[in-house]
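Example for tutorial group B:
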C-alpha cells in the first residue's frame, strides 16, 4: 500500500478538497483546531469523512465520526470503535503507523489501498489523514477522507463481529 506526503500525487478530488480546506483553515498558523471544521464548508465531503482521535498510552486510534458513505462501503458504522479492535492484524498495524506518522510530523499523509471485496474482486481507493489540534497545540485528532472513485458496493451487510472475524478492512460486494 503506497503512501506519500506530496499531495500532487493524489488523483482524488475529495483529497484535494479536504487539503484545500485544511490549508485555508490553518492560515498562517501551524494547524487548524477541531472546532474549525465547518460542516457547511465541507458538505460535499461529509459522507466520506472520518474524524479520529489519538488515545494513549499506548497510541491507539478511536473513530469519533464515520461518514455515511464510508459506513455504507464498510458494511457498518464503526463510530466509537478502535482501529486495532475493528481490523486486527496487519491492516490495523499499518494504519496505526500512518496515524502515528501524521501525529509526529504534524503534516498530512496520503495513500492508496487495494482491498478485497466479499465478491472476490478488488477495488482501489485513495485516502488522506490530516492532523488537527483540539484546544491546544498538540495533534489530538485527525480528519480523514476516503475516495472510492465511484465503486458501487452490493448491499451485503455484515455485523461488526463478522467483519472482525473476516480480517477484511472493507466488506464490499
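The residue assignment follows.
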Amino acid at each position: 500500500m503506497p503512501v506519500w506526503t506530496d499531495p500532487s500525487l493524489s488523483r482524488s478530488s475529495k483529497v484535494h478538497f479536504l487539503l484545500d480546506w485544511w490549508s485555508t483553515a490553518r492560515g498562517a498558523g501551524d494547524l487548524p483546531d477541531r472546532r474549525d471544521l465547518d460542516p457547511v464548508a465541507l458538505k460535499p465531503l461529509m459522507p466520506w469523512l472520518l474524524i479520529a482521535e489519538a488515545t494513549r498510552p499506548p497510541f491507539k486510534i478511536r473513530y469519533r465520526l464515520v461518514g455515511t458513505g464510508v459506513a455504507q462501503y464498510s458494511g457498518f458504522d464503526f463510530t466509537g470503535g478502535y482501529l486495532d479492535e475493528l481490523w486486527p492484524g496487519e491492516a490495523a498495524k499499518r494504519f496505526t503507523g500512518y496515524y502515528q506518522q501524521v501525529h509526529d510530523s504534524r503534516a498530512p499523509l496520503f495513500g492508496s489501498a487495494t482491498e478485497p471485496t466479499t465478491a472476490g474482486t478488488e477495488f482501489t481507493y485513495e485516502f488522506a489523514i490530516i492532523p488537527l489540534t483540539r484546544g491546544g497545540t498538540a495533534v489530538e485528532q485527525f480528519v480523514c477522507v476516503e475516495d472510492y472513485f465511484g465503486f458501487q458496493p452490493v448491499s451485503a451487510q455484515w455485523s461488526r463481529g463478522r467483519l472482525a472475524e473476516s480480517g477484511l478492512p472493507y466488506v464490499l460486494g
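The first strand starts at residue 3 and ends at 4. Compare this with the pattern of hydrophobic and polar residues in the output above.
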